[in-house]
Amino acid sequence: MSDTVILSWVTFVYFGASMFYLIRLITGKELWGLLALWTTVGGFSAQTIALVLRWVVSYQLGIGHAPLSNFYESLIFFAWAVILLYLIIEWRTGLKSAGIFVAPLAFLLMAYASFSPNVNSRIQPLIPALQSNWLISHVVSCFLGYAAFTIAFGLSVMYLLKIVKRFSRFLPETEFMDDLIHHNVVMGFILLTLGILTGSVWAHYAWGSYWSWDPKETWSLITWLIYATMLHSRFVRGRQGKRMAILAIIGFAAVLFTYLGVNYLPGLHSYLQS
Amino acid sequence: MKRKENIPNVKKNVLWSLFSSFNLAVILLILIVLLAVAGSLIPQQDAARELARRIPPGWAAILQKMQVFDLYHSVWFFLLLGFLSLNLVSCSLSRFPVTWKSFRAKAFPDAFTSLEDMTDVMTIMTEERRDSALQRLEGLLKKKYGKVEQKETARGDFLYGEKGRLSHFGVYVIHLSILVIIGGAVAGALFGFNAHVRVSEGEATDTVQLKGDGGIKKLDFTVRCERFSVDFYENGAPREYRSDLTFLKNGRVVHQGSLLVNHPISFEGIRFYQSSYGTAPDGKISLSFRRGKGNIHRRVFPLDYVGSKYYTGLQVAHDPGLPIVASGAFLLVAGFMVVFFTSHRRIWISVEARGDRTAISIAGRTNRDSLGLQREMERMMTMIKDTGVET
Ligand code: HEM
User: Fold this and answer.
1) So what's the pLDDT on residue A97?
2) Sorting pLDDT into bands at 50, 70 and 90, what band is A168?
3) Tell me: the pLDDT tens digits for B33-43?
């Protein structure tokens, strides 16, 4: 079975896991939570195998490189990182109710990668600019950071729902969520910082300048500044709770724009050198 | 830095309190974000020329004057960066005395008695004798905290350990690193240059065309392109671009090397990058391969221009700010390590005889990550219990 076939099946597995997490939220029955967890673990294992397979196949094709080089691969890796981080959190804290706010996001990423006609899933050879180890560390740290921001986003939605009384029965305490949102944002911030720095080193070698205000660079800086402001309002002002949750959602919107939105900006191609 | 005594006086100054306020920082950060957003939406530099042609000339002239078409090099942007730097400096200076005090804080082995507000004092009762408990606890604390202070008081015996004092300075390292990076970037923008040049195979040049104003810059040496080659994968995508370059000074060959994408050549502080190529005589075909972050579809032109000469397009850059920015980046990462992975933890343990039993209490303080401290205290408590039974 080829890696892309496995990955499109994993999409459905994550959809199933999302449904189980939803049923758990509605009924409050732990059995569904357990089912959701093991479905997610199963999907994650299959996805990991598929990623390794894709890596191996690229070498068999004679164009070997880590599966982190095009849009398709980045979507898959993004979803993989989100689930990895989520599983670690569920394992470490016993938190199950966040699954319904996280698993569907992984499902959407996978579905977009597997079924959108705009996304080419073929293994492509690396053009010269992409032949760089800095690029790999750049992609890995950026997407791990994005994953942490994604979890913070899911938790923030959950937090806001908790404040609306009706949903509060099966959701954890607000302080616990607040703390977890903060920790994810801190982790995302560190990783995004590393991502921007390694990206700059790559740009320095590949493009002749560590920073050239290309829309993607600009938007990563915007994202970084939004999260920096958010962290300061906690460090300096001691702000917590609702305000932080809203800022985490705004920050995540900036993440999405950095990742997907900039491709639709006018003028991207005018950055091509004449 | 000003001496410490000066700070209260300075603080009364209105200007100072404005510049050291955190509100200003938030406003400046938001303004920088807005400027960056505007710059990504409005075509900039070369791309702006087309826009300028489509809108009324009066408007174009005004926008041009306002530097809207080069926001990232505009007076506005430099002003914002300047204010942010001032803000950062004054904010740090006004906070430093407090930090210094926490750093120099004396070890008070018996502070615990007066610190009723200490988070979660945990207490257990054991049958163990005071002396053996003290000895055991000292060993335990020493293992985790290095040095242990001890004090006997009327209320009982106290042990005290601490670690991570230096973590108070992490914030300053981070903020300094931001200043260093801004400084290096500005130095690069002011004193560096970015240029482009095309050299045909077998030919040489000592001038390059500056980006932006398009002026000509003369180099102190000559660069010659011996050969350019391009190599393709089976599917037609490029595998490698290579220019064999020779650097000459006063007609003498000083340096030779192959230039590849991702492997620039640096000569006399000036870096050369492989950036484009084409065929030399009429220059009709010009392929560029800048800015492909993975998901841009590119068209590949078949090259049936066999026989005609190539030219190589070189990007030529000089950035004296680079080492400054790089050291700023190192400082930033180092500061992050300190701030996010260390904390100033202080632990007090008291051993107090109560009748024929002994009460062991443990309390702690930290400048951040109180949850982490609490977990550590809980672990210590379990260890105290576990080893306590046998004695
Ligand atoms: C834009 C880049 C900036 C970054 C990456 C940054 C980073 C940080 C970090 C990580 C902390 C947390 C330190 C801790 O937990 O102890 C912090 C604290 C702080 N920052 Fe910034 N900062 C930036 C800009 C600023 C600016 C412009 C100001 C303006 C005055 C500022 C003022 C402060 C203050 C007052 C604190 C609290 C220090 C304390 O708790 O003692 N920061 N900063």
Assistant:
1) 84
2) low
3) 999 998 888 87
Cα–ligand 1 centroid distance for B360 (angstroms): 39
**What is the β-pairing status of strands B357-366 and B345-354?**
antiparallel
Alpha helices per DSSP H over B13-56: 14-19, 22-41, 46-54
| Cα(A111)–Cα(B243) distance, integer angstroms | 43
Q: How many CB atoms lie within 10 A of CB B273?
A: 26
CB B248 within 8 A of CB B224: yes
Maximum distance among all alpha carbons in chain B?
Answer: 103
For chain B, first and last CA: distance in Å?
56
B313 contacts on A by Cβ (under 8 Å): 273
A197 ligand 1 Cβ < 6 A: no
Q: Is the CB of B174 under 6 A from ligand 1?
A: yes
Q: Mean per-residue pLDDT for B9-27?
A: 77
Chain B interface includes A130 (CB < 8 A)? yes
Alpha helices in A28-66 (DSSP H): 30-60
Quote the CA–CA distance of B372 and B65 in Å, as a whole number: 55
pTM equals 0.87
Of A4-18, A208-222, B369-383, the poorest mean pLDDT is in: B369-383
Ligand 1 contacts CB of residue B178 (under 6 A): yes
Paired tokens of A268: 């991207």
Interchain contact, B237 vs A232, CB within 8 Å? no
Mutation to probe ligand 1, out of B174, B176, B179 (largest number of atoms < 8 A from CB): B174
Q: Whose CA is nearest to atom 11 of ligand 1?
A: B171
Between CA B388 and CA B391 the distance in angstroms is: 6
Paired strand residues for B218? B207
Share of chain A above pLDDT 90, in %: 54
Write out the H or E segment, with its range, that includes residue A184.
helix A174-207
Mean per-residue pLDDT, B329-350? 91
Give the tokens for residue B88: 């950062």
Indicate the burial class of B28 (C-beta count within 10 angstroms; 0-12, 13-18, 19 or more): buried
DSSP-based three-state secondary structure for A210: coil
Closest C-alpha to ligand 1, atom 24: B175
The residue that leads in pLDDT, B129 or B260, is: B260
Of B22, B275, B332, the CB nearest to A273: B275
Q: What is the mean pLDDT of chain A?
A: 88
Give percent above pLDDT 70 in chain B: 85
